[in-house]
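Recall that a protein's primary structure is simply its ordered list of amino acids. Everything else, from secondary elements to tertiary packing, is in principle encoded there. The following example makes that idea concrete.
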Amino acid sequence: MNKQQLFRDLLKGKPGKERVFFRPILMHFAARFNNTTYGKFASDYKVLVESNIRAMEYFDTDMVSLISDPYRETSAFGAPVEFIDEGVPRCLEHIVKTIDDVIILKRPDVYKSIRTLDRIKGAEYFQKLLKGSVPISGWIEGPLAEACDLTGVSEMLLNLMIDPDFSNTLMDKCMVTAKDFAKAQIEAGCDLIGIGDAICSQIDRDTYDLYLKQRHIELISYIHDCGVSVKLHICGDTTHLLESLKEINTDIIDLDWQVDLDKGREILGNNIVIGGNINPVIVEDKSEEEIYILSKMLVDKYKDQKYLLAAGCEITVLTPHQNLMAMRRASLLPD
């Protein structure tokens, strides 16, 4: 069975006969595995694509991705971004400081901004090399994550409490660009759009329901209307948000290691694909055999559900290759 069919079966809830879908998040790890730097991985779509494919072929992962860092859209809005060799790109200035900055913030053209266009070209390059044989995940920042990128995390969280006009106006502008960027990646060949809104784990449910729930519903619905599925990625403990997240209609949700998978399934229901949820630090630090046993336990328990095997977040750059391979071995089902 090819990887595209495996992905379609996953979304339909049809258990795999040969394997459980295996999709770890690979960024710095993929760059290092391909003997290049994170800086080149994040700044050059050809390096990103070729690194993903090399890792996919070696570790037999079931999807490739365009995820790299949080600052694609931020750069398109006009913020200066610095690339460093062995680390996540850095935003050098928060360009939104006042409501006046929000008001004059222009809608970027994702086809003209260097960093957003680079990701769009990455989707096209994946399609050129893989010819539709492997599902491709695009990536966008969620509305709260992007607002934080533009104005600062502490500043945005404070504004959620004291300045709803600032918060709503800024996130509305972020929503427009999120849709533009998602559509462009879909038209370039992506089969799935991942939405990264990690900061949501740091707000309470009432704040999520007030500011984010309807925006997530709207954004996910828009992507569905464009013809592809959606994955929501929120790092950290989202247990307190599960009752709300069950209503946003995402196809796939990543649950980080702090969330109990059984509780997640009980609340979210059986129609959503749950990804996770091994602690990435454990994947790096434990032995190959320990990682195999832990992964196999998850596979045996959830193989008949809508489930994909992954760590709760990104595989760390120093993870031993044999540990990631142990996760793949554990995902294979006996004849």
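The CA atoms of residues 97 and 189 lie 36 Å apart. The chain has a mean pLDDT of 97.
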